[in-house]
Structure formats: C-alpha cells, structure tokens
Design a protein that fits this description.
This is Small ribosomal subunit protein bS18c. This protein is mainly alpha-helical and 101 residues long. It has a domain of 40 residues: Ribosomal protein S18 (30s Ribosomal Protein S18), CATH 4.10.640.10. The chain is 35% helix and 0% strand.
C-alpha cells in the first residue's frame, strides 16, 4: 500500500505508567529533607515541574518548603562543592607586576 493512501494507524507502543514522585502519605514540609532533596539540582536550584513530574499544587508546596528550609539554614542557597581554580589568572597578574621601569 502507498504511504499516502494508508489510513491513520496508532502505534502499538506500550507505555509504562510512572509512579508519582510524591506518594499520598508523604507530607510536603520544610523538615522533610529526604523528600525536598529529591527536587533540588546539584547546583542547589529548584527543578522545574516538568522535570519533577509534579502537579501545580505539589510544585508550589515543594517550592515553599525549599525556600523555608533555606531561610532556616537547613539547605544551602548555593551548592559550592566545586571551587574554581584561579591559578591561570593569578599567574597573568603577577607577570605584569614584575615589570621593571
């Protein structure tokens, strides 16, 4: 059969239903660090709703809980585990200072 004359057929892919990231028994609270830490990136940013697969109400509650935990110093505002090395920039500036007049 020609492609243009073929009727629309749905593909027979099977979709596995994903479990929601927050169960009905989980309480969204700033003290629940095991739950909150799942929704923060390595840099300490709040992940988007599309990445988290949360509902709008759940995402709002997670965002509020993360911000409360940051204010109470339970979570860092930034995750600075990787410190940038400044060896290259210091060598350039020291070379300029040793110039004779």
């Amino acid at each position: 059969m020609d492609k243009s004359k073929r009727p629309f057929l749905k593909s027979k892919r099977s979709f596995r239903r994903r479990l929601p990231p927050i169960q009905s028994g989980d309480r969204i609270d700033y003290r629940n660090m095991s739950l909150i830490s799942r929704f923060i990136s390595e840099q300490g940013k709040i992940l988007s709703r599309r990445v988290n697969k949360l509902t709008l109400k759940q995402q709002r509650l997670i965002t509020i809980a993360i911000k409360q935990a940051r204010i109470l110093s339970l979570l860092p505002f930034l995750n600075n585990e990787k410190q940038f090395e400044r060896t290259e920039s210091t060598s350039r500036t020291t070379g300029l200072r040793t110039r004779n007049k």
